[in-house]
Design brief:
By secondary structure, the protein is mainly alpha-helical. The protein has 2 domains: 99 residues, DNA polymerase, domain 1 (Orthogonal Bundle), CATH 1.10.150; 121 residues, Outer Surface Protein A, domain 3, CATH 3.90.930. Helix content is 51%, strand content 11%. It has 10 helices and 6 strands. A 3-stranded antiparallel sheet has the order 1-6-2. Strands 3-4-5 form a 3-stranded antiparallel sheet, with helices on both faces. A hairpin with a 5-residue loop joins strand 4 and strand 5.
Amino acid sequence: MPVDERPAFQQVQKQMTDWLRDPDNAPAPAVEARRLAIYRDLFFNNVRDFVENAYPVLKRLLPEEEWSALVRDFFSQHRCESPYFRDISLEFRNWMEAARMEFMATKPWVQELLHYEWMELAAECAETDSTDVTINADGDLLAERPVVRESVWPLVYRWPVHALDPDMLDATSPPELPTFLIVYRDAEDAVRFLQVNALTARLVELLQLNTHHSGSAVLEQLAGEAGFTDAAAFLSAGNDMLADLRRQGIVAGTAFSGNHM
C-alpha cells in the first residue's frame, strides 16, 4: 500500500471530506460525532438547496424518495469542477446526463426539463457584450433594422417542458409537435419565458444574425424559407410579429445607424 506523504493536516482534511460525502462507507475522523453530524448537515443542506432551487419542477414531478436519492448520490459521488455556488445547478445537470443515463432513458423528458429549468439561472447570470448601436425604441420595424436585446435565447424542445404534468411522466415518446420558447431578460433584467411558434422563433434567430438589413428584408428571407408565396400578406403578418416582440421586450427597437437593404 502506498504511503500517504501529505502533511498530517491534509490527511485529516481528506478523511473529513470523504466522510462528509459518504458517511456510510468512509471512516469517521477523530471528531465528536455530534459535531460531525452538524458539519455534514450544513454541507449537504447547502448543496441540496442550490439544486432544489434550480430544479423545482423536476423535484415536484419525481417521488420524494427518488429525488432525495438523486441529490444524495450527486453529493457523494460528483466532484464539481467550478468553485462557484451558482454553478452547482449546472454540475448537477451534467452529472445526471453522465452518471444517470439509465434513469434518463426511462424518463426521456428529464434531460430537456433540466436544461429548461437551468436556463433561468443561466439567463439571470449571463454576461452579455454591450452594444455600441444607438437604439430608437419607437423606430419603424419594417423600414429600419430591428435590434434584439443582448440577453435573448430562442429554444426548441421535443417535450412541452414548460407544461409537464404527472399524466405525461410515463410517456416514452414526445408529442408530434415541438415546443418553441424564448428565454430573455427584459429592460428591468427580469428573466422571462415566452412560448412562440416556429416562425417567430426563427424570426428572432434571423434578427440576431442580422447586422444591416431592414425588418422587411428579414421577413422576405423568412417567407422564402417557410415557402410563403403571398409576400404582401406575409409582410403584414410579420409586421405584427415584430411589433409583438417589441411589446414583449425582446426587440429593443431599431438601429439609428447603418444602411438598410
